[in-house]
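To whoever picks this up:

The parser on our side crashed when reading a file containing two proteins. I've narrowed it down to the boundary between the first structure block and the second sequence. Both blocks are reproduced below exactly, byte for byte. First block:
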Amino acid sequence: ARSEEKAPLKVLLVAGGCCHDYATQSRILKSGIEERLNATVTVVYNPSKGTDARFEIYENKDWAKGYDVIIHDECSASVTDKPYVKRILDAHRDGVPAVNLHCAMHSYR
């Protein structure tokens, strides 16, 4: 048996926007993941209730740096700003895995 402990998985959870209770979802997802996995979940939350929710973290081209996986739990269906969307997608095109929850599938088209 190995006595070394592995470093926790670094998870970024981005949540907010239209149509769901993202404040509650963020708390449930963070605690549920951290209780079940060796993981540290960082939550970026925007309380906007619109489909135009934007996230300051995405303004930086290296927004995903240091994370092992990103959970997208946002509804930003009206956000079509090409440079903004490109920054989001580039992180995943460069290899950072993503999990898209429900409304995230309607975002950044």
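<<boundary where parser fails>>
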Amino acid sequence: LCKQFENLNNVIRDNKIEFKVALEKIQKLIPEIKSEYYKQGGLDWKKNTWVFPLQGYYSSAIGGKNGNGYIASGYSFFDGNKHRGHPAHDIFIQDNNQDCKDDKTNNSVNVLSFSGGITVATEKNWDTISKLRGGKYIWIYDPYTNSLYYYAHNSKVMVESGQMVKPGQCIAIVGRTGLNAFKKQSPTHLHFSKLTLDNYFYPKPIDPYKDLIVSKKQ
């Protein structure tokens, strides 16, 4: 089921499917994934378990001021790689020499799953001639909030489609992959988004800023 979602996400991303067809497929797949998640022992991970998605960092690393880097206007999931807006928070690491390592520790920085849920899509391949904006990314579906969480620009993806995760689990390593993220003018960061499915299973952007600033530091 998750592989089916990943394949669907790929054709949405690449603008190779009509909106109506894509939405109908999501309306069918998500309830099936949710049902199977609980059959396989998946848990509801509530707000008090959520973890800030960069290990060793906290809310001060979120770009902009008081979350104003989040711009949902004009965004549609179904626009794929051509979407408008910036319904996300960029969370920056200290990396002045752009080697994808923390300047103080000289270590790579782990991307942690904010919530629990199940991995429904990943992209593990990217090179500098690619026009893919997210680079190496992960989509995780959280049945408890009925939301999709997106983690982009990673240097390495550590989970597979279909793999269940829990809050605080290492799912990737921070990187600089993606059409604009690899360019010199872009500081090294994680691009983090939340889309909540409405009653029609339409993925709508929801600002996670208030949840980020109260999540656990790890």
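After patching the parser it read the second block fine. The chain has a mean pLDDT of 97. The CA atoms of residues 5 and 29 lie 7 Å apart.
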